[in-house]
Amino acid sequence: MNKSTDIDIVVRYLEDPENEQLKAELNDWIEQDNANLDIFLDMKAMWQGDPLPAASSTYDVHGQWEQLDQQLVAPAAKPTPVVQMKRRYWWAAAAVLLLAAGTWTFFGPGGYQTFATNQQRDSIRLSDGSMLYLNSNTRVRYAREFGKNSRTIKIDKGEAFFDVTKQDNVPFIVNTPEVAIQVLGTSFNVKSSNHDVKVFVESGKVSATYKATGKKVILTPGMEASLNSQQHDIDTKTYSKRNNILAWKTRTLIFDETPLSEVAASLADFYHVQVKISNPQLADKKLLATFPDLSLDEVLDIMRKTLRINITKTNDLVEIY
């Protein structure tokens, strides 16, 4: 479903919240992706002229679901026709923006911005001079007044790399639903999935705090912290200079006598496929190769010839045997 269709579903419901069919369509759309609830709440707030929550605030998702469920059952007040028309045109313009650019943004009356990518990658230069690089399928948001008195960004989902300009008096803060990250000036990567957040530091020093328990870890260059919301714990790992954590940004995969089991994991993450090693004896086989922005088929062909192994690819499944 494209973004213009998404917006149309929400707008039609906001124009006629008592319509049972529109309620059902909205509910089905929200259930497709947890992030759609945030999008709906943002659009509803803008529709009503309410200020949006600050980027650093904690969102009560469970509570919002309960409120929404009541809304979709109980009658709701209907906006006046004049307001409907004005906002209809405003959101129609927003829909055009979504179609015109792979990275889209919402501007709310509360001075709040949301950026998101679909299948492509993108980058944003922030007002303080810091650079934000977004991987595909990533959604972030921050206040329009970012950089003046605070520098806070929230990652709703996906993966982003931050190259932060140093400001001793204004810390740079990155929030995910489970983890708070604070720096002054550094470069680091944050990957947020359903139940796991990974923070990797390329330069400088980063403080990562697990919100549920208050546990905190200090990361220095080459270190990665994995914070699992189901385990309520923090695991750390130190990498050598040769790793592929930032391959999505550099578009280059580097394997320096890397075991095939690790190669498979890197390929799966980079190309968004499932990689299975059917022959366990191949798991420790080493690969020495550099792949500069090659297609998956090209990489697999080189691996076949270099390691003299069999590889088949069917749709999104790669099998090594």
TrEMBL record:
InterPro entries: FecR, FecR_C, Ferrdict_sens_TM. Signal peptide: none annotated. One of its GO terms (molecular function) is sigma factor antagonist activity. The keyword Metal-binding does not apply. Residues 253-318 form the Protein FecR C-terminal domain. Residues 117-206 form the FecR protein domain. The chain crosses the membrane at residues 89-107. Keywords: Membrane, Transmembrane, Transmembrane helix. PANTHER family: PERIPLASMIC SIGNAL SENSOR AND SIGMA FACTOR ACTIVATOR FECR-RELATED (PTHR30273), PROTEIN FECR (PTHR30273:SF2). This is FecR family protein. It comes from Chitinophaga terrae (ex Kim and Jung 2007).
